[in-house]
UniProtKB/TrEMBL annotation:
PANTHER family: UREASE ACCESSORY PROTEIN F. This is Urease accessory UreF family protein. Gene3D superfamilies: Urease accessory protein UreF. It comes from Lentzea sokolovensis. The keyword Chaperone applies. Keywords: Chaperone, Nickel insertion. It comes from the Bacteria. The keyword Lipid metabolism does not apply. The lineage of its organism: Bacteria, Bacillati, Actinomycetota, Actinomycetes, Pseudonocardiales.
């Protein structure tokens, strides 16, 4: 199972995550993230908000909880239409790739256009590892985007990711189904969705 989690967390996995910045592109465009210290703050907040939320739902899906109920509950906890669309787009991409690599009846039981954390939970099948995968993806994608958008030192950026309490968040996510919000990320997602002109990332 750990190998499955590692494959899903690999940036080369063809799940479509590379086209999403997790709000980083809009934050950079507004001058909110400009260097390593501001990136650290952004990633820390993202991990404790959107990361914890996604990790909790991945753990619940791995435990075998009702997938349709989880999908509806995650929708209710994601007030931004742009955020919901991004989660479902990544879920579709990950589901398509997972069906080829790990076909199963449980994958076929997922709702149409499922949220990404549910796909991760079903594929990984172990709550902590599923939560850890989601928590890591919540910061690794935006970190990679920061290198591409801002030209930050990749060694410094990866040191930031390594310093974050990803495992602690995953452990917490296994104990409860979070009901917290990330209003700043919601606002950035909606602004990014309305932005005209060239965008490097879909969200």
């Amino acid at each position: 199972m750990m190998l499955t989690a590692l494959i899903l967390a690999d940036s080369r996995f063809p799940g479509g995550g590379h086209v999403h910045s997790g709000g980083l592109e809009e934050a950079a465009a507004r001058g909110l993230v400009v260097d390593e210290p501001s990136l650290r703050s952004f990633l820390h907040g993202r991990l404790l908000g959107a990361g914890l939320l996604a990790a909790g739902f991945a753990a619940a899906a791995a435990r075998g909880e009702d997938l349709a109920m989880l999908d509806a509950e995650l929708d209710a906890r994601t007030p931004s239409p742009a955020q919901r669309a991004a989660s479902r787009a990544q879920g579709r991409g990950m589901l398509r790739a997972a069906r080829r690599a790990w076909p199963s009846a449980r994958l076929e039981a997922l709702p149409r256009d499922p949220h990404q954390p549910l796909v991760i939970g079903v594929v990984v099948g172990e709550p902590f590892e599923a939560a850890l995968t989601c928590a890591y993806l919540a910061v690794s994608g935006p970190a990679s985007a920061a290198v591409r958008l801002l030209g930050l030192d990749p060694f410094g950026v990866n040191a930031i990711v390594a310093s974050l309490a990803v495992e602690d968040v995953a452990s917490r996510a296994c104990k409860e189904l979070p009901a917290l919000g990330s209003p700043a990320l919601d606002l950035l997602a909606e602004a990014h969705d309305r932005r005209e002109g060239v965008r490097l990332f879909g969200s």
